Task: structure prediction
Amino acid sequence: HVRILESRARSVQPPESLRLSCVVSATIFKLATMAWYRRAPGKDRELVASITKERTTNYTDTVKGRINISRDNARTTLRHQMNSLNREETAVYYCKLLKGNRWGEGTSVAVSS
Result:
């Protein structure tokens, strides 16, 4: 069991930016690779970005240059900075241990004009 506290629902207009955050239990977070996933309407969940405990990052090609994943190990907080958002990035976003098996409700992000 891992405690993950995610941000509440957000609504923005393109091309606005948004930062999502989540807090993970310390005993797991300090050793774990963390990830942000998203599920857009009508699509499967996809891995957007991940970050190791050493702060090595990985991004899906579609978000490179606009999305930044970071972590504050001392505060056990994972951050997801999204810049220049477009309508196609409307989705439910999930903060999750990369190799974990628990999913929360996620954070709904609506990007619309």
